[in-house]
Specification:
146 residues, alpha/beta, Rossmann fold, 5-stranded parallel sheet, 5 helices, 37% helix, 18% strand, binds 1,3,4-trihydroxy-5-OXO-cyclohexanecarboxylic acid
Amino acid sequence: MTAILILNGPNLNLLGTRQPEVYGTTTLNDIEKMCAQKAALLNIRVDMRQSNHEGVLIDWIHAARGSFDGIIINAGAYTHTSIALMDAISSVAIPTLELHLSNIHEREDFRRISYIGKVAFDLIMGHGAAGYPMALERMVEHLKTT
Ligand code: DQA
């Protein structure tokens, strides 16, 4: 069975109360349930995790080798800073999709730079929580064609 790892970076544990005007009111728990429902429909296995620590995210990416067919990552602010996360994704060579709740191209200039985008095969952003199940669909479609 296809297995997808969904990684969430710093501050995404606060979804629901964190800047709801930007990120909406859906919690990460709610998003996890939405992903589980979509996974059942797509007949795939999904494991969703969140960490505020760059090294933990890197360790999870390394450990994904041999266990997961694809990685969906909302790296939060590490998107814009972390060459280390970018290198981790390149190192494991697992197809990776970049995901954001907000449209990072329509916000502050510093959010336009994405290191994750340099190694991801696609980007989904600006759809709020709905972007997560969309990302699962996109990943499954991508894995079918590769
Ligand atoms: C985010 C966008 C990032 O710029 C920000 O630092 C986040 C959330 C998003 O999902 O829209 O933490 O990744």
